[in-house]
Structures are given as C-alpha cells and as structure tokens.
Amino acid sequence: MKKIIVLLLLLQVSISFSQTSDEQMLKAIYKSALTESHCYTWLDDLSNKIGQRLSGSVGAEKAVQYTKQQMELLGLDKVYLQEVMVPKWTRGEKELAYLQIGKQKKTFPICALGMSVGTPKNGILANVIEVKSLDELKELGEARIKGKIIFFNRPMNPEFIETFHAYGSCVDQRSSGAREAGKLGAVGVIVRSMNLRMDDLPHTGMTNYGDTPKESRIPAAAISTNGANALSKLLKENTSYKFYFKQSCQAFDDVLSYNVVGEITGTEHPEKIMVVGGHLDSWDLGDGSQDDGAGCVQSMAVLEMFKKLSYKPKNTIRVVLFMNEENGVKGGNKYGEVATKNNENHIFALESDSGGFSPRGFSIESDDKNYDKIASWKNLFEPYLIHVFDKGHSGTDIGPIKSDKIVKVGLQPDSQRYFDYHHAANDKFDAVNKRELELGAATMASIMYLFDQNGLQ
After folding, report:
1. How many Cβ atoms from other residues are within 10 Å of residue 200's Cβ?
2. How far is residue 262's CA from residue 208's CA, in Å, rounded to a whole number?
3. Terminus-to-terminus CA distance in the chain, angstroms?
4. Under a CB-based contact definition with an 8 Å cutoff, are residues 378 and 303 in contact?
5. Which residues contact 348 (CB under 8 A, 6 or more apart)?
6. What Rg, from alpha-carbon coordinates, does the chain have?
7. How far apart are CA 340 and CA 357, in angstroms?
8. C-alpha distances in angstroms, 14 versus 2, 21, 330?
9. 0.70 surpassed by pTM
10. How far, in Å, CA of 412 to CA of 239, rounded?
11. Phi, psi values for residue 31, rounded to 5°
C-alpha cells in the first residue's frame, strides 16, 4: 500500500513539474514575441517595400527572395525554395461601371473578380436581372437569362457570430456565379462583395469557370456593398435600366514560382515533421497585410522565438510560406505532392490565414484522442485569453498534406473585422495592430511547443 501511495505522489509531482515547466515556457514565448520579435518589421517590409504579391507578379517574386533571406538570417538548419507552377493573371486598367438612367449615368465602384476574363474592348451594356442565389438563377432559366447581366446580391448573413460562417454562406455566388450564369446565356456577372460592412470598396476573390471553354467564359466583377444596395434600389424602380461595365483583365500561361521553406531539425525524431505556415501571395488591390502577410510573418516568428529561446525541438519544425492560395492553391498542392513522393512523415500542421487580429484559439482537425489532448492545454492558455478549442477546418494550404496520422490546426483570431479588409484595397499595413500580430505569433509558437513535447496520442 505504501508503495502505491509513493508512486502516486511521484506521479503527481511529475505532472506538477511538467505543468510548471510548460507554464514557464509559454510565459517565455509570449515575452519574446511581445518584446523582441521581428514579425511586425517583416510585415512592414512585405507590405510597404514590396506591396501586392499576386501569383506570377514581380511582387510575388520579390517576396520569395525577401522571406528566404530573412529566414537565412535566423540561422535555421535549412532554408530552400520549392518550385511550383502558378497562374498568372493581370487586372489591367481600372474597371468602369455605370447604370444608364435616361441621359444620366450613375457610376458604381467595381473590380474584376480574380481569373475573370475581360469584357470586349468597348465594354458590355445590357439589362440586369437581380438574383439572390444560384438556385434562383437556374429557376429563371435560359429564356430569361440570355443576353442579360446577372446581379448576384445575397449579403453575408449578419446573424452568424462567426463571420467565416457568414462568408461561407454566400461565397458560392462569387466562385460559381459566372460559370452557372454563362451556361444560361448571360453576358456578364456582377457580384455583391463579401463584406459585412457597408462601404464603397469592392472586394475581389477568385471566380472559377471549371471546364467552361475559354470562348464561352463571361466577365465577372464585384460591386461594393453600398453600390449593391444602390443598384438594387434603382432596379426595383425601373427594370429596364441598362448596366455597363468594362474591364481589361487577362490570364496567361502558368509561370514558375516558389514555396519558401525553412526548418529546424529535430533532436530526437528528425524524421517527424511539424509544419507551420501561411500563404505568401495576395490579391492585387491592397498589399495583403491581413491576407496573408500576417500569417507568413507569424509563422517565421515561431522559429525565430525558438532560436532566441535556445529551444531545441524533438521533432523537425518546418515553416512553409505557400504560393498561390488565392487563385489556385498550387503551392499547397505541390507541397503535399512532394511530401507524399518523399514519404515524409508529417505529424502536425498549423496554418494562420484568418488575419492578424487578436488570437482567440484554434480550429482542430484530428481524431478524438488528439483533440482531447490539445483541449487539455486550455488552462495553460487561459492567462493569454485563448479559449477557443473547436473541431473544424484548419486551413486550405495544409489540407493537401497527407500522413498516416496527422493533426491539423488553424489559428483562430477574432474575426469580426476581418472581412472589412478581405480581398479589398484597404488590406494594408495600417490595418494590422502590432501587439495583436505578436500575440498571434506567440499563440502559434506555444501550441507548436506543446505538441512537440507531447507528440501524437
């Protein structure tokens, strides 16, 4: 009996010591992030010295070279570029749109959707039909759609507290609207911006033509939320008004680009790989500070903190800055393809692609046993106001990573203001708060540390 009591006491001491050690390490991580991290400086350079980083652009190539150089300066064990072919699409001249009201022209702020074709040189002028959904579009049928411009005007649902759910509830009209309207003979598509705020900024984003032949593709543009409301009101007054828009965007053959990879080799299990990353490309209207410059510099900062704290991970920790998440996911697919080909054993992947706002927690893709293990760390995160440990989608770029057993996690910042900037011209450096960015980096480093120490369950 005495032996059992002694063993239980030793076990309690061991658990207590482990918790104390973890608490101390997390405290050191947050202190390092808030006092000596370079993540905000890196973001400043990406945003203000390089700017937009659309795949295939000069900005994207500069960002590849810049982040590679910065990771080399961290003294990582390996830094290298992974080749990937990516789409090249250019916006061209500034878009123009107006509603013809008698002899008057009411102008509207629009922007071409990513990967859209351009209009004819002189633009398109046609009657407009407003719809709320793809189903409503199909119900109208070809007889009513042919020769018209389709105006998709379903707003993000404000009832959802989690704004990514609101986004998901209406983004199909942007991604599939042009493809489906084109099948019914429409000549163009205008889509309400994916934004909960009322403003005059159109938000771009990819439209997907699927297997539609190039000659049958119709142009698609986003209209601002204020513009969408105004257009809807005018169309209700007079359905015979004609809408005009012009855009000169163009797609080219795929070009060579790169994922940027850096790693610290594991001391005990170098063959087991833990990934942390974000996507280096951005849309071309702003400079991509929130989407996803923030995630990239936070991921780099994870390895920076481990180096500064002289932490030697048990497993290999690899930062990956993925190219082409916005209009193709070619970088994520290539990384997953190469990892499978090389029989790499990934045990953990963490992605930051929800903005640089205050971190709130994580979305977790794993089996129940590993989820329970991660959820058991809640008390360690409580001092840092991290409380969300939900099962759910982790990230687009880490999605293609396949291993026999892998845990995938997405950083979940406060999302209430994210779609004010998402894919719009105001996604710029001044929209990111330094302290919030650093807190996110510390939260990422903390869960990487805890998983590195505990491993798969």
Report:
1. 13
2. 32
3. 31
4. no
5. 274, 275, 315, 406, 407, 408, 409, 448, 451, 452, 456
6. 24
7. 33
8. 18, 10, 46
9. yes
10. 43
11. -65, -45
Structure tokens at 238: 């007079």
Q: What are the residue boundaries of the structural domains of the chain, listed by start?
A: 28-89+253-454, 92-248
Give the residue from 109, 123, 86 showing the smallest Cα distance to 258.
86
Dihedral sign from CA coordinates of 196, 99, 145, 189? negative
**Torsion angle defined by CA atoms of residues 171, 172, 175 and 177, in that order, rounded to the nearest 10 degrees:** -120
Active-site residue set: 325
Tokens encoding 98: 């107006």
Per residue in 96-108, pLDDT (tens digit) is 999 999 999 999 9
Query: Does pLDDT of 196 surpass 50?
Result: yes
For residue range 150-166, list pLDDT tens digits in order: 999 999 999 999 999 99
Task: Provide the 10 A C-beta neighbour count for residue 143.
Answer: 8
d(CA 443, CA 32): 12
Dihedral angle at the C-alpha atoms of 259, 265, 268, 271, nearest 10 degrees? 40
- DSSP 8-state symbol, 46: I
Give me the pLDDT at residue 95, please.
98
The structure tokens listed for 95 are: 């878009």
**Angle at CA of residue 301, ends 297 and 305, nearest 5°:** 175
Q: What is the dihedral of CA 104, 108, 111, 117, to 10 degrees?
A: -40
Architecture of domain 92-248: 3-Layer(bba) Sandwich (3.50)
The superfamily in CATH containing domain 28-89+253-454 is: Zn peptidases (3.40.630.10)
Contacts of 91 (CB under 8 A, 6+ apart): 111, 112, 247, 248, 249, 284
Task: Give the model's pLDDT for residue 455.
Answer: 87
Phi, psi angle pair for 333, to nearest 5°: -65, -40
pLDDT of 18 reads 55
pLDDT 10s digits, 278-302? 999 999 999 999 999 999 999 999 9
Q: Which residues are bridge partners to 80 per DSSP? A: 261
